[in-house]
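Supplementary Text 2. Reproducibility record for the structural model of the 64-residue chain.

All settings were left at their defaults, and a single model was retained for analysis rather than an ensemble. We include the record here because the model underlies the residue-level annotations in Supplementary Table 4.
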Amino acid sequence: MARIVKQEAQGPTEVKPGEKSAWICMCGLSGNKPFCDGSHKKTKDEVPGKIYAYGSDGSRVELQ
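Retained model, structure tokens:
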């Protein structure tokens, strides 16, 4: 089932459950959720106010 989820973050959030850091995906694109895999780099050239959809292959389409 496909769904559209609005995510505005363009980078991960650091959490420290112990001595080592873990990076949690906030952009919604990681293939290793809930952990960051660097997929947020695809969002860096997004234009504020526009809406984008990302395919499972990493492709991006502007919706609005």
